[in-house]
Amino acid sequence: MGKKRKSLHPNEPLRHNDHPRPVSRRDFLRQGFITGSGVVMGGGIFSLFSNPHEAYAAVSNISGDIHKMADIAGCPVGGGAGTKLPFICFDLAGGASLAGANVLAGGPGGQKDFISTAGYSKFGIPDTMLPTAADENINSELGLLFHEQSTMKNGIVEKAGSALNRINGVLIPARSDNDTGNNPHNPMFAIARAFLNDDQSGKVLSLVGSRNSDSGGNSTFPPSFMNPELIPTKIDRPSDITGMLDTGSLTGILDKDDLKVVMESVARLSHQKLSKVSTGTIVSRDELIENLVKCGYLSAADIADRFADVKVNPAEDEAIVGDTGIFSQGEWDGPDRNEFRKTASVMKMVLDGYAGAGTITMGGYDYHTGERVTGDDRDERAGRCIGACLNYAARRGVPLMIYVCSDGSVSSNGRPDPNADGKGEWTTDNSSTAASFILLFDPLAGGRPQILTNTVPNPSLGQIGWFSRDASVVRNSSPAADNVLSLVNTVLLNYMSASGMISSSNTSAFTQIFTDLSISHGLGNNFDRLMAFGPVNSP
Question: Cα separation of 42 and 461, whole Å?
Fold first, then answer.
C-alpha cells in the first residue's frame, strides 16, 4: 500500500514534482509560495458610485473655482452620479475545483440534470455522495445549488450572515488553460467600460492593485478593453487604504473646514504659478506635466474635504472586526490574517462607495497534491472571504455581484481520502472540468434576486452551458464554454442586466460597447440564453 500523502496547511506552498520550479511571481502565487493580491478599481478619489446611505456620505464640498480648475486640468473631483451595482472578482490562482465538488454541475437540463457516476468521481464526488432527485447531497442555501459537502459553501454560509436568503447565482462551465495567468479572466476593464458608456456613471480613472501586472491580479484581461488610464497601484492591506487617503498631520492641528481652506489655497497658488509656465502648444509635454501637478494639489484638497473625518481603515470598523464584526479579533490576528485583511480592505472600499469594482486574488489553488484535505481547506477559506463580502454588503444595505474564477481546474482519479470523509483525492490538472460562477446579492429583494427563465439553456436551472456525462465542459454549450474572452463578455452581459443598463428587450448599451471598440462580442444574436439576472431592486 502506498504511503498516504500529508495534507498541507492553507498557508503552506505546493511543491509538485510534475511542475517546473516556480520562477515568476505568478508561479509563486498559484503554488502558494506568496499570498494573493487585492485589486480595487476606483473612480476619481474612489467614488464611482453615489448612494443615499451614510456609507456614501463623503461628497465633495470644495469651492466652485477649485471644481473649475479641476475640470480644465482634466482631473475629476467629488463623487460620481448614479447608483450602480458594486462588483468583486475572486481570482483563485492555480486551478481550483469550482464545479462539481463545490457548485453542483450537470448536463443540458441544468444543475439537477445529473451526470454519470464516473463523471462525479472525476469531480471528486464518490458514489456514496451522489446528488439525487430527492435532493440528497444538494444544498440550496445560496440559491445557486452547491454540493452538500462543499467546503467553499461551508465558508460562504459561515460568514454570509443576514445576506444568506437574498443571494442567487449561476454556474458557467468554461474551459481555461491550467497554471497560467494568460487566461483573460479579469473583467475589471470590461466593467469599467460599461460605466464609461453609461451616462449616469462617474468617470473611472484608476485601477488599484497589489500585483505589478497589467491587470493588477493573477489573470490578465481581454486586451481590447485595456484603458491606459486604469494603471494599477497597490492595495492589499488596510495601511494601503489609509495611506491613499491620508490628510497628513494637519488633521491633528486643524479641523476639517480649516484643513480644506488650507489645501484649497495651496491649489490656487500652485495654479497661478503653473499657469505662467506654458509653451503655447495645444497638447504639449509641458502642459501635460502642468496638469498632472495641478491634479495632485486639487486631489489633495478634495481628499482633505471628503475624507478628513471618514474612517476608511477596516480594522477600525466594528462591522468588520470585533465582537459584533464579520471577523473576530482572533481571526484578524490569526494565521489567515493576510487573506482576511486583504478581503476586508477591498470590500470596504467597494461597498462603502469609494471604489467601483475590485479583484481579490488568492494564491495556492494548484492543489492536486494526491490528497483532498489541502484543497478543501483552501476552498473553505476562499468561501469565508466570499461570505464576508456578502455579509458586509448586507450590513451596508448595498447590492453586490461576485464573480469567482480560476485558471484551469483539477480532477480526481476516484481514490478516496479517508481524512476527507472519503471524498476523491485531487491528482491532476484538468482544464475540461473548469468553470466560473456568479453570485448576486440584492438587499431589497423580497427573497432571492430574480433569475430570468426565458432562456435556452435556462439559467434558472443554475447554469449557462453544461457538462457532458463524463464531467467535461461541452465546448459548444455556450459561447463562454471554450473561449475565455467570450466568458468575460458573458459576465459583462449579466452585470449590465443585473445593474439595469440593459434588458432582454433592449441590449443596445451592451452592443454599443463593442461597436465603439470595433470588435465582436462573440456571443451571437440570442442574448436571452446567456442572461441570468434581472435588475436588482435596490435604489
Answer: 34
* Domain carrying residue 394: 25-49+84-245+310-530
Q: Which three-class secondary structure state does DSSP give residue 273?
A: helix
E-state strands within 64-134: 87-92
**Is the peptide bond between 457 and the residue preceding it cis, with omega within 30 degrees of 0?**
yes
CB 434 within 8 Å of CB 474: no
What whole-number distance in Å separates Cα of residue 489 and Cα of residue 492? 5
DSSP letters, 183-195, are: S----HHHHHHHH
Give the integer Cα–Cα distance in Å for 500 and 118.
42
Locate cell 444568506: which residue? Answer: 164
The answer to whether residue 174 sits within a structural domain is: yes
CB distance 84 to 49 below 8 Å: yes
In three-state secondary structure terms, 156 is helix
* Region class of 264: left (phi > 0), else alpha (psi between -120 and 50), else beta: alpha
- Structural domain count of the chain: 1
Mean pLDDT by 10 residues, the chain (539 residues): 58 57 51 56 38 40 55 53 72 93 95 97 97 96 97 98 96 82 81 70 43 57 75 67 57 48 48 44 52 55 55 90 97 95 90 82 90 95 98 96 94 96 95 96 89 64 94 96 95 95 93 94 92 84
